[in-house]
Amino acid sequence: MTAAVAAVDLGATSGRVMLGYVGHDELRLVPVARFPNNPVRVADGLHWNILELYRSVTAGLASAVRDEPGLESIGIDSWAVDYALLDGERMLGTPFHYRDERTARGVELTHEKVPFDELYRRSGLQFLPFNTLYQLAAEQEGGWLDRADTMLLIPDLIAFWLTGSRRAEATNASTTGLLDPRTGGWDDALVEQLGIPRRLLPEPVRPGHEIGPLLPAVAAELGAPAGLTVTAIGSHDTASAVAAVPATEPGFAYISSGTWSLVGVELEHPVITEASRAANFTNEGGVDGRVRFLQNVSGLWLLSESVRQWERESGGPIALPELLAAATAVTRHVPVFDAGDPVFIAPGDMPARIATWFADRGLAAPGSRAEVTRSILESLADAYARSIRQAAELSGQPVSVVHVVGGGSQNALLCQLTADRTGLPVLAGPVEATAIGNVLVQARARGLVAGDSSLEALRALVARTFAPTRYSPAAR
Ligand code: LFR
């Protein structure tokens, strides 16, 4: 028996709706819709174009229903930390983009109330200036929180618009900085200490929970059968991606590689120590209560933002395959920079920022576009190697293989450099790990995975159906 579910996967640069077919020894994805996600800068800052995204999601779901009348469930994932404030059914303003600079003020306000080392002891979350709690502090200063009765993270917002149910899916809620990783519930004392109204936070639910059927008006709009259900999955895209890592043995590290690179290991219990805080490792919630012990290293954002700048300069499109071929052909030694430096977070002229990073340290910057590209990829691989080494040291979990999933798994140069710099074999793919993780958790929740349905069994199914590409480290 084969079951059909739909995955809505919203990334920072594009979104997609996919049909997923799951059966015994069967796992297939069929793309239904792909649409751009273009943030918009207006007077008060950088926002997500959430209504356009929602319109694209419903249009995509309508196509999914047309293509697959037997559709049984819908799951939604997106990037983390961002949210909408609601007053009743009404959305207050347009959700901000995590790259909006207002978060700097939120960090200041929050750390005045609770210093970072205490926050870390409570939530186990790495410092990122855009974590939800900092964004909420900025809203609080503007009086926005007082006007709201609910905060919904992006996938929870879409689920609310589809079903009318307000929930906080737990893997994504773990990126707010307000969840207690030991209990999986909101840290009420911390929420109070920060002066965040407790009423804003809906009940956390775990992946697999049934959020509810489509609202009748939505079902009519989509042409969907009454009773078509939205199922909670690992709604943090990285949680879904990690769930779909095609690992067949323990002792693996993963790199979920897209706009960001999320680099780490999976654990049964959080590691919240002085050393993990100093190394800025996070303990995010995974599917089945696992812990994603990882670091946010920057990602292909560095390259895409550079390409955007070069395109502005040359007034025409730049072909990525040619640029990567030229970067592969670079034989001169290129310098490496700290890809995780926060100066690279905000949008802007990335090649100039990279050049400044080197100049500030009295170092020669890479010259040509090919060299800059090579330097970006070498710097990412260098950061990956460091993060993987630290993840193993801090968690005590040895690593013998590195799985790269997501868009970056198609970048052969980056995968090879990662193998070379880690000294470990790299297994690359699947590209659509996030959508696969989304689909598998829905299918399992609907009882559609026969036999063993442990995370390990799901991963083995991914490994059988999406065989990864192997990169061996160069002999040293
Ligand atoms: C990846 C991701 C990261 C998160 C960043 C911002 O898409 O979800 O895990 O830190 O986006 O939300």
From TrEMBL:
Pfam families: FGGY_C, FGGY_N. Belongs to the FGGY kinase family. Residues 253-445 form the Carbohydrate kinase FGGY C-terminal domain. InterPro entries: ATPase_NBD, FGGY_C, FGGY_N, Rhamnulokinase. Gene3D superfamilies: 3.30.420.40. This is Rhamnulokinase. Coiled coil: none annotated. It comes from Herbiconiux gentiana. PANTHER family: L-RHAMNULOKINASE, SUGAR KINASE. Keywords: ATP-binding, Disulfide bond, Kinase, Nucleotide-binding, Rhamnose metabolism, Transferase. Residues 7-242 form the Carbohydrate kinase FGGY N-terminal domain.
